[in-house]
Give the backbone structure.
Amino acid sequence: EDQVTQSPEALRLQEGESSSLNCSYTVSGLRGLFWYRQDPGKGPEFLFTLYSAGEEKEKERLKATLTKKESFLHITAPKPEDSATYLCAAPNQAGTALIFGKGTTLSVSS
Amino acid sequence: DTAVSQTPKYLVTQMGNDKSIKCEQNLGHDTMYWYKQDSKKFLKIMFSYNNKELIINETVPNRFSPKSPDKAHLNLHINSLELGDSAVYFCASSQQQGMRGYTFGSGTRLTVV
């Protein structure tokens, strides 16, 4: 069964305290691994797509990496405005829809 | 200029009623989707439409029916609403079955009382 699992469920950081979020997947023939950010009361906002193991993408304080079995979202020196739920997703085996993980809710305090 | 817009943003209704949620995208995408996000924030695919054809339907009760009058619109009709239907419903769109990511609307919070 196609599945995307994220950990931890929740993460509390102090401003400037770097950390990583994990996303593991069991989708055969992976055709992309997607990261989204969701703020309360809003829809998910696209961050990155990674297509092959070893690929990395960066945006401001965020860096996403991909291995053959998992992806990491590294957050360097986070600020309170980085507080949000981060969602990982992968296309199902048929390629007809994205399967989402349950997300990691990040809280950054000043 | 909103890329994917949903209406209404909030919907409170009684059990047994029939309701609709509308979705429109102005991105020229060829595929649209409906997702349900439950109280634990878990996003689950309900339907997708590609060029006006339903291409997936993930074990959703037949009280839910998507209607796509054209490529830019995908409405969600729900009959005989139940308490368990309370959730946030998100519309999304993509090009080429989403290999460049989906664009989501801001969601419709449905509360059934």
Summary: The mean pLDDT of chain A is 93. Chain A has no helices and eleven strands.
